[in-house]
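Students often ask why we bother encoding 3D structure as a string. The short answer is that it lets us treat folding as translation between two languages. Here is a chain of 113 residues written in the first language.
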Amino acid sequence: MHATVSKYMKLFILIFVGIVATVPAMSATRTWEPVKTERADAKSVIRETDIEIKAASGVIIVNCNHQTQIKIFTILGRMVSNETLPAGKSQMQLPAHGVYIVKIGDLTCKVAV
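And here it is in the second language, the structure alphabet:
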């Protein structure tokens, strides 16, 4: 029985180390960049008078008329981005496909990418 427990403990440690090793890659700093060309697969999520949020495969695109603070969270509440965007179109490649919460000023919405 001792050998079996030891074998499962080694397996657990290997799996745990493998998971922990991938976390830094997922939490690497993401940066916003200006949109050079509009993506054909981008779909509008929400549009207000001065802000529009679009989603495409693995990307969030924001078009705003003025400089604005933006925060992006995973559905579990982990912050992915907290930056000030310039006026114009900006996009950010996300670490994984899924559902994110986007907060711009008083506007908050759910975005699936």
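Translate back mentally: Confidence is low (pLDDT under 50) at residues 17-28. Keep this in mind for the problem set.
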